[in-house]
Amino acid sequence: QVQLVESGGGSVQAGGSLKLSCAASGVTFSSCGMDWYRQAPGKERELVSSISAYGTTYYADSVKGRFTISRDNAKKTAYLQMNNLKTEDTAVYYCRARYFLSTYWGQGTQVTVSS
């Protein structure tokens, strides 16, 4: 059974940093594309960043230059380093694994940024 467990969320003041982790099990992690999504209250879930199995990265314009996605295949973990956080980054952050035609979601972790 595939499991994705996010951690690292919390409350921080604007300008601060957080690092999210997504630990995977039950799947060949090195073959997965990994995504970070977020969903703010009353808004649709949006893609924040992606990293392919080969290490190719993507960032939404709203986080470019502030967030960094990475992966450690030996630890079966994906990361999202978030710097210079803004109040508009407040959301529940979800990781998603893409393995061939299947996708798997984590349970989410809350990030709250206060002014």
Radius of gyration: 13 Å
Termini, distance in Å? 40 Å
Query: What is the helical fraction, as a range of percent?
Result: under 10%
**Mean pLDDT across all residues, rounded?**
97
Low-pLDDT residue spans? none
Structure write-up:
The chain is mostly beta strands. The protein contains no helices and eleven strands. Strands 2, 4, 5, 6, 9, 10 and 11 form a seven-stranded mixed β-sheet that branches.
Keywords, separated by commas or semicolons:
115 residues, mainly beta, seven-stranded mixed beta sheet, globular
Give a concise summary.
This protein is an all-beta fold and 115 residues long.
Fold blueprint:
Elements: E1 3-7, E2 10-13, E3 18-25, E4 33-39, E5 46-51, E6 57-59, E7 67-72, E8 77-82, E9 91-99, E10 102-105, E11 109-114
